Amino acid sequence: MVKVAIYPPNSLILADLIERKGHTPLALQKQIRQKIKDPEIDSPPMNITEEDPIKGLKYAAIEVPSGVRGRMSIIGPLIDAAEAAIIVDGAPFGFGCVGCARTNELSIFCLRKKDIPVLEVVYPSDEDETMLMVNQIMDFLDSLPGGGGDLEGEGNVLGEGSEENLGGQ
Amino acid sequence: MVKIALVSCGTEYSGVQKEIEKAALKFGAEIILPEIDLDYINEAYEKFGFSAQSSSLKLMIARAMSIVEGKCKPDAVFIATCFRCAEGALVRNEVRRFIQNNTRIPVVTYSFTERTKADELFIRMEALATTVTRRSILAREKQEGLTLGLDSGSTTTKAVLMENNKVIGTGWTSTKDIIESAQTAAAEAFEGTGYNWDDVEGIGTTGYGRFTMGQEFGAELIQEELSVNAKGAVYLADCQKGEATVLDIGGMDNKVITVNNGIPDNFTMGGICAGASGRFLDMTSRRLDVDITELGPLAVQGDWRKAMLNSYCIVFGIQDLVTTLAAGGSKADVAAAACHSVSEQVYEQQLQEIDIREPLIQVGGTSLISGLVEAVSETLGGIEVIVPEYSQHIGAVGAALLVSGMGNRHE
Q1: Furthest CA-CA distance within chain A
Q2: What confidence score (pLDDT) does residue B410 get?
Q3: Which of B42, B83, B112 is closest, CB to CB, to A169?
Q4: Nearest CB partner across the interface for B10, out of A42, A52, A99
Q5: Whole-model pTM above 0.90?
Q6: Where do the domains of chain A lie?
Q7: ipTM exceeds 0.85
Q8: Domains, in order of start, for chain B
C-alpha cells in the first residue's frame, strides 16, 4: 500500500479509484477539511491566512504570486508525501481543479521530478477513451507495492454514462 | 446594504478574503460572489474571447459576464487578482474594461499579496460605497452658506473656507499633530474674513486624518479623499458636466479618478513607492538646492533626455541625478528628468489601470510644479491638462462644497 498523489488534487474520482485498490489517496479535501476544522482560525471560507502563502515559499520564490504560494502551501506537503502519482491532463472543472495554471505547472513538475512511479493520462473525450484511461489507472495501481486490494464493483467502476461521472463537458 | 461583487481569481488562497470582507463591512457594504453554473462558465468564457489558462480566471470572466448580462445585480464591483501574475493582470484589466463599457456600475481593481490588509482597502471600499449611497451628495454642484473644508494629508494639512460658492480663505501647513495642524490651517483660512469657528455652518473633513478631525470638530461630513478630490476638481475646473479624469500625485499616494457628470465612477489608487510621488520631487529640489516652488519652472527649461536616470527609486534615482550634476549636467535638465521620471512611473503603475477621459484635471500640491504638469501631458501623448485655481487645496474645497448640502449646524 502506497500514498498516491493525484492531479487535479481534489479529484474525487481519482481518490476513489485509489482507495478501491487499497492505496491511500493524497487528496486536497483532507487538507482543506483540517484547516476548516481548526478552531483557532477564523478566515472563511478556507481559513487560509497570511502565514500560508509564506509557508508556500518552500515551493516557490517571493516573486511568485501569493495565490500560487497559498495553494502550494496545501498541495506541496501532499507532493512531499507522495510515493506514487497519477496526473490527469486537460481535465475540466467538474473533474477537479485548483484554479491556477501556474500552480498546475509547478505541482506537476514537482511530481515528475520526484523519483516515484508516475502515471500521466490525458482526460478522455469519449467512452472508449474513458475506459482506456480507467484501465490504465487500475493497472498502474496494481503495479504499485501492495496494490490490487478490494475490487468490489471494479468492473463497473464508473457505471453507466461514464463521461458524466467523470465530470466531462 | 451596498452589495459589492467580488470578481477575483481566488482571494481565499492568498488569505486575504477576510480582509476584503472586513473592509467592505466597515463602510456598510457586503461582499457577494456572482453565482453561476458550470455550463455558463464555458459559454461566457467563449463569448468573452480571452484564452486564459487558469480556470479561476475563466470563472472570473464568467462572473463579469453575469454582471454585464444582468444575471447578478451588484451595486459595485471589486476586481482583484494576485500581484505579479501576468495572466491575472491581463484578465483583470480586460474584465474591468468590459464591465465599464457595458454597465454604469462603479468598479475598482486591486492586485493583492498575502500582506494586503483591510486598512489598505478601506479607502477603496469607502469610495465604492459612497458612489452608491451618497450619489445625491456627490451630485451637488454649488456651495451654499459658510462652510469649512479640512484636508489632513500625509504631508500637509489644508483648510478652505467657502461662502456662497466662493473660496474666501485658505490655509496650508505641514502635517504634524492632526488636530493642531488642522487648527493652524483653519486659523489661516479664517484670517481676514471676519469669521471664526462659531460662524461656520458646516464642516467637512477628508484625508488620512479625517476621522480624528471629524470627531474633534463634530464634522457633518467625514469623507475619503477619492470622492472629495474628484468633486473638488470638477467643481474648480468647471467640468461638472460630461467626462473628465482627475489626477492627484500626492506626498504618499497617488489617485486617479474618472468622473461622469461630476460623479466619480472609477478610480485607482496607488503609492508605496516614493519614487512615484511628490516626495521624489521634494528630494530633488533639496539636492538641487532650489525651493520646491522653483523646481517646476526650472524643469520646463530643461530637457530630461540630457540627464541620466537609470532608476525610478528615490535613493538610486536621486543618486543618478547627482551623478549627472557632477558630470556637468544642468540643474534644469536634472529637474526635467525628475519630473519626467515621476510622470512616467505614475503612468506605468496607475494610469494604465484606468481609461483616461479628457480633460485631465491635475490637482494636489504637485500640480503647482509646472514641469510635472508638462511631463504628464507629454507622457500621455500631449493631452490637455487643466490645473484649476486652488488645485493644491482640492480636498478641502471638495469637503467644503459637499458639506454645504448637509444642512446648517446651527439649525
Answers
A1: 48
A2: 81
A3: B42
A4: A99
A5: no
A6: 3-165
A7: no
A8: 2-133 (3.40.50.11900), 141-226+395-403 (3.30.420.40), 240-387 (3.30.420.40)
